[in-house]
Write a structure and sequence with these properties.
The longest helix is centred in the last third of the chain and has 20 residues, at 206-225. This protein has helices at residues 13-27, 37-45, 92-106, 121-130, 171-177, 198-204, 206-225, and strands at residues 5-9, 49-55, 58-70, 73-83, 111-116, 134-139, 145-150, 153-158, 161-167, 188-193, 229-234, 241-245. 31% of the residues are buried. 34% of the residues lie in helices and 34% in strands.
């Protein structure tokens, strides 16, 4: 990084176009799956916003906030967060999310929701422990089947997702926003263990990855049906796990 990172709203056509290019660079998605400039413009005019992270005039990250109405109140659906690969591991994603919270509260919004892959431990730790989100909803094959090529064959993996629910004025979120530690007082009822490196497992043995995905899905469905909520995540080099409580 050459300069202090500035978080500010992307408003011009050039700034929003840079967000589209960053999607290409970071996600490597087919062009049809990118959120185009028109989508970002419509989002802004419908009451949402796109926050960008800037190194001087260079866009190095952004978060898209889509206006929504959920749980009987105004809310935001956080459609995507992207950080340039050269700028990852510098806390920029966290700064974008806290900037998103601040802007939402200024607009009178107290709830933000987004999806993430339940099998990726880094994302789980970030969402539950760094941001203070919780999980109480699991969606099977949310975007349709993703196909991964294993040696000599093609294996389909369902795009299962957890919904991160960010209650912006919860005690945990307020503590984390202030840079304070938060101790969860609820006792863990069960743990859902995942793999430390999902992508490595998929590359090495896609069929084993499919088996693990089905196991994790079943454990989440059982825990959520029993009224449990994911309120924490334990980092571990061998057995990272979601901590499910009442």
């Amino acid at each position: 990084m050459q300069n202090p990172i500035e978080i500010r709203e992307c408003t011009t056509l050039d700034e929003l176009s840079a967000c589209v290019q960053l999607q290409r660079d970071v996600f490597a998605l087919p062009e049809v799956e990118l959120s185009p400039v028109r989508h970002l413009i419509v989002t802004k005019n419908a009451g949402g916003f796109t926050l960008g992270a800037y190194d001087a005039e260079r866009l190095v990250g952004f978060v898209l906030s889509v206006p929504a109405f959920m749980r009987g109140e105004r809310a935001l659906y956080s459609h995507m967060t992207a950080v340039d690969t050269e700028y990852q591991s510098y806390g920029i994603g966290g700064r974008l999310k806290w900037g998103q919270r601040q802007r939402a509260l200024q607009d009178g919004i107290k709830y933000i929701k987004w999806t993430f892959e339940p099998v990726k431990s880094r994302n789980a730790y970030f969402n539950l422990e760094k941001l203070g989100a919780i999980v109480s909803e699991y969606e099977v094959n949310f975007y349709g089947v993703d196909y991964t090529t294993a040696p000599g064959k093609k294996v389909g993996l369902a795009s299962d997702r957890l919904f991160a629910e960010w209650h912006l004025e919860s005690e945990k979120v307020k503590a984390l926003a202030a840079g304070e530690k938060y101790l969860e007082e609820r006792e863990t009822a069960t743990e859902i263990v995942i793999m430390p490196d999902w992508l490595e497992l998929v590359e090495r043995d896609a069929e084993a990855a499919f088996t693990q995905q089905i196991r994790i899905r079943g454990e989440f469905q059982a825990a959520l049906a029993a009224g449990l909520v994911g309120r924490g995540f334990r980092r571990d080099p061998e057995r990272p796990a979601y901590l499910m409580t009442k």
